[in-house]
Write a structure and sequence with these properties.
Shape: globular
Number of domains: 2
CATH topology of the largest domain: Deoxyribonuclease I, Chain A
Strand content: 25-35%
Structural class: alpha+beta
Strand order of the largest sheet: 15-16-14-13-25-24-22
Number of strands: 25
CATH superfamily of the largest domain: Endonuclease/exonuclease/phosphatase
Radius of gyration: 24 Å
Bound molecules: calcium ion
Helix content: 10-25%
Distance between the termini: 62 Å
Largest sheet: 7 strands, mixed
Low-confidence stretches: 1-31
Length: 488
């Protein structure tokens, strides 16, 4: 039986799956991009449990069976989510795996040639965290490769009832996806005892492969009467060891105000001196505690500073939030740089800590905003949203000057249709959206909003901006930049 027919039969019964759907073949021409924005929003999808491919990427949108009112982030879940690709639609090549559930009366093994697992089982046989990617040879022997080898990423990073993922057909380890024609994809979730919880089947028609992995882009021009705000997590004071990469990025972006995280264990005088050495002169830095690593840097006039707006992050660990009121071409700016508690999962101690920190910051901003009702507010930094979305809901809650919630800024990467802000190629965690920027849209709008990852850009674009291809590897986080202007 050919696989298409098998799938059709499987999908004709309700026994097997909650989401068994195949998809329309994608357009053949590689010049027709699929036009999906990898942002963790799903308005770009007509339905769910569906995929699409273009000359560069494979995109999939899926909705696993919801496991709770507060869904679990799938890289820190008590079950494994698997994306199984049978590249040649041949059960005799790759690793044989059951098509759907063990209970299925018709068991069609799938010869899986590429396997991506989220919360994979560890060596002890219990469910772990992060991701694992395995490429199988024809004889079924497997080789572990990293997510970067496939350009594999998905959003959102927090627990959700739906996800969208992307695989880069031009990534270094993705050669088997450069073929044209049909591939079978099964996404399923299994618990620690290999009990099937959910699955869906997607068939995709891969169009001709594109011939370039880099795109042209340029940094937007700063409008008049705007203030350019950049948020940047510098990976444990890495500007000290990689000064040139950070200096090139600053020269290209030309921020007026920088909201920093992770200038860990560097005295404020050294941060200020680093900027004045590598990024022009006249920088002032507000950084009350070098242990906290959060700082605000600007060449504009700082009108007032605030500190310790949130409770300590743990025993002996200082609060990681700092605020300053700054005079800018767009009026007074109340800038807040934050770094919420790392790690954990939905409902974990870490997630509860993030929620408490967000409550404190919300209360602080509410009080300061009342003193400066004409100020524009920006809260930005490393939110570490790897558990629930509750910390964000708590943070934005009715903080606008007219009582509305603050708005999240959907900055996208220059030259790449994604909102990824964190990418550590060597980490077990696949790239994510950890960094966020919030504004009060009753007071201000973002005329431009972008994320910079030099790895995505063409040599000509990099040269025009004075950047080098690996500059973004100097930190695991990418800078987010907005040009803030008066609300219309
Ligand atoms: Ca999307
Ligand atoms: Ca196969």
């Amino acid at each position: 039986m050919n696989t298409l027919l098998a799938t059709a039969l499987l999908c004709s019964t309700t026994l097997y799956t909650s989401g068994c759907q195949s998809t329309q073949p994608a357009a053949k021409a590689p010049s027709t991009p699929a036009e999906h924005l990898l942002d963790g929003n799903f308005t770009d999808w007509a339905t769910t449990n569906i995929g699409q491919a273009d000359g560069r990427y494979i995109y999939i949108h899926f909705s696993p069976k919801a496991d709770a009112d507060t869904p679990t982030a799938i890289q820190a879940a008590p079950y494994t989510t698997r994306i199984r690709i049978d590249v040649d639609q041949n059960p005799r090549t790759g690793r044989p795996m059951q098509w759907m559930s063990l209970e299925a009366s018709m068991q069609q093994p799938q010869g899986v040639d590429l396997l991506m697992e989220l919360s994979p089982k560890n060596e002890l046989g219990t469910v772990g965290i992060g991701s694992a990617v395995t490429r199988y040879s024809e004889d079924g022997s497997g080789k572990s490769i990293g997510h970067a080898e496939l350009g594999f990423m998905f959003l959102p990073t927090f627990g959700s009832s739906q996800y969208e993922l992307r695989i880069d057909r031009l990534a270094p380890g993705a050669s088997m996806l450069q073929k044209t024609g049909m591939i079978d994809i099964v996404i399923d979730q299994v618990d620690e005892n290999n009990r099937f919880l959910w699955s869906t089947t997607i068939i995709l028609d891969l169009p001709k492969i594109a011939d370039t992995i880099h795109t042209d882009a340029s940094i937007p021009t700063k409008p008049t009467n705007s203030v350019r705000v950049m948020s940047s997590n510098v990976l444990f004071s890495s500007p000290l060891t990689e000064p040139k990469a950070f200096a090139r990025v600053l020269a290209a972006i030309e921020p007026d105000v920088i909201l920093y995280q992770e200038w860990f264990k560097t005295p404020v005088a050294d941060v200020q001196s680093w900027l004045n050495t590598h990024a022009g002169t006249g920088w002032n830095v507000h950084m009350p505690d070098a242990q906290a690593g959060v700082a605000i840097a600007t060449r504009n006039e700082i009108i007032k500073t605030y500190e310790s707006v949130i409770p300590p992050s743990g025993k002996g660990r200082p609060a990681r939030a700092v605020a300053a009121l700054i005079k800018t071409n767009a009026g007074e700016l109340l800038a807040i740089s934050i770094h919420l508690k790392c790690c954990g999962s939905a409902g974990s101690d870490e997630d509860n800590k993030r929620i408490k920190q967000a409550q404190s910051i919300n209360g602080f901003v509410r009080a300061v905003y009342k003193e400066h009702p004409n100020a524009k507010v920006v809260i930005a930094g490393d939110f570490n949203l790897v558990g629930s979305y509750i910390p964000m809901d708590t943070m934005v809650n009715s903080l606008g000057i007219n009582g509305e919630d603050l708005s999240t800024i959907d900055a996208t990467q220059l030259g790449d249709a994604s909102t990824i802000t964190w990418n550590n190629e060597k980490s077990r965690f696949s790239p994510g959206r950890l960094d966020w920027m919030l504004i009060d849209e009753s007071m201000s709008n973002a005329a431009n909003a972008f994320i910079l990852d030099t790895r995505a850009l063409s040599p000509a674009s990099l040269k025009a901006m004075g950047l080098q291809a690996d500059d973004s590897k100097a930190s695991d986080h990418l800078p987010i930049v907005i040009d803030l202007v008066n609300a219309e």
